[in-house]
């Protein structure tokens, strides 16, 4: 399958086969969640010939000198399957907060994992921009290239035209981009919810924690609805309860339907949310630990049918990411594989019995794999003991 990727003025023609690239391990029967593929993108991977970045970073950089000469390819916080062995992966807002990320350009990276060699190829990408001045307030840059001081982008789905809906945490806002990364319409706020970053700009009162907006964004199998999941609890709600908000892409408005996902404890967080079918979601739940302090890193199935009538999404544990079988000792790891990263923010269903999970390495700060060493961007595939019974419409019919 061939497709053309436009990256600035450079068009890359890429031929990739799905077998052995995006999906690893086949469909061998397993009795417990089992590692079937491992790939890694080195921490110090940069967009060649881009712009300096990281001039506002302070603190422990795990040995990396700042500023960087180019833009790092890091911080993966959302993923779209292109169906041809490549994936569009959303880089995080930059270096952890609004104050230190003004020189980090918001970008969708195009990647191709190669599990036969444990590597990830960078095959393209686009910067996110606002050339038509859809954002009504002043941006960081006069050229309307969006930065990590403008938005904290954390979640992404494809729209019907090959563009993207992206969830932001500073608003929280929904942002709609075309396939070239150009903002199509004004940021859509969530009525009644305001994060501190927006409260400061507008002079209103915040009722959500900083950067606790839309960490998860799921698209219904028919493409009409988006389900935007907050990372933080809204003031007045039960601690640990997260609002899942339904948005109608036809009307461009929220429907008023809202569901509640309850964390296992108020100090936990979610990392991503995607759909399995019209009623079920796949959600990453995690603690803030890394390395030896990482304990809770999990995938849950959450069902909005609420069969026990407690007003919450029904939760079922699918995978404990700290206890994955690895009988083949892939990538040199032992028979039990762990994913001990502070932030794990990407999950995608590859087929009815296989999921892929990626970490957000918070470059250059996180060091969950080896203390004192900046984490790579790791990409794993996991075989499941039984079928997810997914709606077939969640899979890409063909490459974009």
From TrEMBL:
It comes from the Bacteria. Residues 1-24 form the signal peptide. Residues 71-363 form the Phytase-like domain. InterPro entries: Phytase-like_dom. Keywords: Signal. This is Phytase-like domain-containing protein. It comes from Actinoplanes campanulatus.
């Amino acid at each position: 399958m061939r497709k053309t990727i436009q990256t600035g003025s450079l068009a890359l023609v890429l031929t990739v086969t799905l077998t052995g690239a995006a999906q690893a391990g086949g469909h061998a029967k397993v009795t417990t969640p089992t590692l079937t593929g491992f790939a890694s993108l080195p921490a110090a991977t940069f967009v060649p010939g881009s712009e300096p970045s990281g001039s506002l970073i302070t603190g422990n950089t795990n040995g990396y000198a700042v500023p960087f000469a180019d833009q790092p390819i890091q911080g993966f916080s959302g993923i779209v399957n292109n169906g041809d062995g490549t994936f569009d992966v959303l880089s995080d807002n930059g270096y952890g907060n609004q104050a230190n990320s003004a020189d980090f350009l918001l970008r969708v990276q195009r990647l191709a994992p190669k599990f036969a060699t444990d590597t990830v190829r960078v095959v393209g990408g686009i910067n996110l921009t606002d050339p038509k001045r859809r954002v009504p307030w002043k941006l960081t840059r006069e050229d309307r290239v969006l930065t990590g001081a403008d938005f904290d982008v954390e979640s992404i789905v494809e729209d019907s035209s090959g563009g993207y809906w992206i969830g932001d945490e500073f608003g929280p806002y929904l942002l709609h981009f075309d396939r070239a990364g150009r903002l199509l319409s004004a940021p859509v706020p969530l009525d009644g919810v305001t994060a501190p970053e927006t409260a400061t700009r507008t002079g209103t009162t915040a009722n959500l924690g900083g950067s606790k907006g839309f960490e998860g964004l799921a698209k219904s199998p028919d493409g009409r609805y988006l389900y935007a999941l907050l990372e933080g609890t809204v003031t007045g709600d039960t601690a640990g309860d997260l609002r899942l908000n339904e948005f109608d892409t036809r009307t461009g408005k929220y429907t008023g339907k809202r569901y509640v996902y309850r964390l296992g404890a108020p100090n936990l967080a979610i990392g991503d949310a995607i759909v399995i079918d019209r009623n079920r979601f796949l959600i990453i739940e995690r603690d803030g630990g890394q390395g030896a302090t990482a304990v809770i890193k999990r995938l849950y199935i959450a069902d909005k049918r609420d069969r026990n009538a407690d007003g919450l999404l029904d939760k079922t544990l699918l995978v404990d990411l700290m206890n994955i079988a690895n009988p083949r000792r892939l990538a040199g790891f032992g028979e039990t594989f762990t994913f001990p990263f502070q932030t794990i923010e990407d999950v995608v269903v590859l087929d009815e019995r296989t999921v892929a999970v990626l970490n957000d390495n918070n470059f250059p700060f996180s060091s969950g794999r080896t203390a004192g060493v900046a984490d790579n961007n790791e990409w794993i595939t996991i075989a499941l003991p039984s079928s997810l019974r997914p709606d077939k419409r969640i899979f890409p019919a063909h490459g974009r």
